[in-house]
């Protein structure tokens, strides 16, 4: 099975192999608190990105380790990309952009990203 996280207009997105997760993370860092993302991290090899260069916004800050992608057409953030502390390429899926994900049933873990 797979599931897809897509922006509102469909220009960008990520298709993830595997089942929808039952758990996700919220984060209080300066960008997550503004965007309200609900994140699930997967190895980059499990994600197929739809990311045309003329539609993909890329915002970085701090150590520029995470690419906070967004759609240049509709503004949504279906995924971000980056590397974990071990250097592995990761994709953070924003489960708010997965229509079939029941957000109210997710077990959420709050990450104190503001202190990183
Ligand atoms: Zn869009």
TrEMBL record:
<dbReference type="Pfam" id="PF04828">
    <property type="entry name" value="GFA"/>
</dbReference>
<dbReference type="InterPro" id="IPR052355">
    <property type="entry name" value="CENP-V-like"/>
</dbReference>
<feature type="domain" description="CENP-V/GFA">
    <location>
        <begin position="3"/>
        <end position="116"/>
    </location>
</feature>
<comment type="similarity">
    <text>Belongs to the Gfa family.</text>
</comment>
<protein>
    <submittedName>
        <fullName>GFA family protein</fullName>
    </submittedName>
</protein>
<dbReference type="InterPro" id="IPR006913">
    <property type="entry name" value="CENP-V/GFA"/>
</dbReference>
<dbReference type="InterPro" id="IPR011057">
    <property type="entry name" value="Mss4-like_sf"/>
</dbReference>
<keyword id="KW-0479">Metal-binding</keyword>
<keyword id="KW-0862">Zinc</keyword>
